Amino acid sequence: MDFRKIMVPVHGSPVDAEVLKLVCRMAKQSKAKVFVVYVVEVRRSLPLDARLEGDISRGEDALTQAEQTLEEEECEYESSLLQAREVGPALVEEAVERHVDAIVMGIGYKRRFGEYSLGEAVPYVLKNASCPVLVYRIPALEKPE
Amino acid sequence: MYVIIVGGGKVGYYLCRTLLAEGHEVLIVEKNEAKCERLEEELGSICLRGDGCETATLAEAGTGRADMLIAATNEDEDNLVSCQLAKYKFKVRRTIALINNPENETVFKKLGIDVTVSSTNLVLEHIEQEVPTHHLMHLLKLEESGLEIVEVRIPGHSSVAGRRVRDLNLPQGAVLALVIRKDQRPMIPAPDTVLEAEDQVLAVTSHELEDALRLTLTGQRVERHGN
Amino acid sequence: MKVVIMGCGRVGAQLAALLDSDGHEVTILDVDSTSFRRLPPTFSGVALLGDGTDQEALVKAGIEETSAFVAVTQGDNRNVMAAQIAKHIFNVPRVLCRIYDPLRRDLYEDLGLEAFSPTTIFAQLLRDKLVEAAS
């Protein structure tokens, strides 16, 4: 498949670098641009445009890290920090607005209440995004907590 | 303005759409998952799934910074509790409750709810306007002062017809504000204004004096010419 | 003493039976007539079909002359509303109300209702039993 712009949501976790390296390989094949995003989630108790210094600087750090990886891989990229109520809908909307033609999401291996959990954002994007979506899950831990 | 709507039924949905279009920040709190999904699909991230009668849900909804909470579920008791929580726990300035049983209007007012909207009463008021035997119609409620503006049509048989305003035994506190007579310009009644049959009189009165005012103006129990 | 009870569930029916056998004048309200089967055959009070959040039903149940009103339906909000009507509209001297949700109970206690949360009471009881057994 030929992609021109691939969106990669990052979280500031070690998964980010792994996914970005993989995406760079895909991108080079089709001369695509990589678009990294970080979403700052804003609780309802605050207005949507509240300045959440801690969250914003964490997001900026994650994006800087991602940009470094992309530069090392010599990949063309752009990046964006979003502020929204929920991650899933924000990613789906941004993908449409920026004419993204694929989303690649990296996820950890998480358990919640003793059950394997995808969280909320991934299923939402899988269900609602209009473009192709790839999910990259890191290897399962030997002994899940 | 930040408005929280409890209940994502038809009323909640249309309210939300209208308020969003007017540029307000709106959040619907709805228990039902399928309803939430449908709302979000159409209107974006504007829905919180949860029970709007629970403190934790309302805290998550950011009720503390809300300018208004509208309780629009189908259950009067749920609407009452949502509004009371908002008012007393989260200090929301304005709470509005939808009510189904019109009798609850007084109860809700007494329990601190700022505004109640009774669909049953709204329909009844329209029926009153259609049925000529009702001589007194409610036009507007002035929430802050507890007063209301009513319209009274002076019936042909009324002994009030042909009498001066100063000679009427108006209940103290009720004020005649405007007289509208067929084919004439509306006039502000003076003490010497003589009322005629079929005059439309707009009056300001408290709810308690409404009956007394009705009796005086429709002349069914006027002291001097009493029956 | 004349008592009006709203909700003929297990607790409501039991309370009605107890008060009745103590010689009090009991009227019990429920929206579902089958729930009156919970009342013992000896019950000599009045069982009335009606909604305790409805003022007319309350008047029929004799709310204007009662010295106590107890709201024990399954719904916290129904109990809260009926109790407030009894207290603030009909000025019933003693009003008791069950509210399962502890947080809601706290709020209405602050607003002047005599409210009980079985959730809190039962959890505390269990804890006390456990601690008692351990020491």
Describe the structure.
The complex is a heterotrimer of chains A (145), B (227) and C (135). With 145 residues, chain A is α/β, with parallel strands linked by helices. Chain A has helices spanning 15-30, 53-72, 87-97, 121-128; strands at residues 5-9, 33-41, 77-84, 102-107, 110-112, 115-117, 133-137. Chain A is 38% helix and 27% strand. In chain A, the strands form two sheets. Chain A has a five-stranded parallel β-sheet with strand order 3-2-1-4-7, with helices on both faces. In chain A, helix 3 (87-97) runs parallel beside helix 4 (121-128). Chain B folds into two domains: 2-118, Rossmann fold (3-Layer(aba) Sandwich), CATH 3.40.50.720; 130-218, Regulator of K+ conductance, C-terminal domain (Alpha-Beta Plaits, 2-Layer Sandwich), CATH 3.30.70. Chain B contains seven helices and ten strands. Residues 221-227 of chain B have low confidence and may be disordered. Chain C has one domain (2-134): NAD(P)-binding Rossmann-like Domain (Rossmann fold, 3-Layer(aba) Sandwich), CATH 3.40.50.720. Chain C is built from five helices and six strands. In chain C, strand 1 (2-6), helix 1 (10-21) and strand 2 form a beta-alpha-beta unit.
Q: Would you tell me the overall average pLDDT of chain B?
A: 86
Q: What is the fourth-level CATH superfamily of chain C?
A: NAD(P)-binding Rossmann-like Domain
Query: What share of residues are in beta strands of chain C?
Result: 15-25%
Assembly state (oligomeric): heterotrimer
Mean pLDDT score of chain C, rounded?
Answer: 95
For the termini of chain B, the CA-CA separation is 56 Å
Task: Please name the CATH topology of chain C.
Answer: Rossmann fold
CATH architecture of chain C: 3-Layer(aba) Sandwich
What series of H and E elements makes up the topology of chain C? EHEEHEHEHEH
Could you spell the SSE succession of chain B in H and E letters?
EHEHEHEHEHEHEEEEH
Shape call of chain C: globular
CATH class label of chain C: Alpha Beta
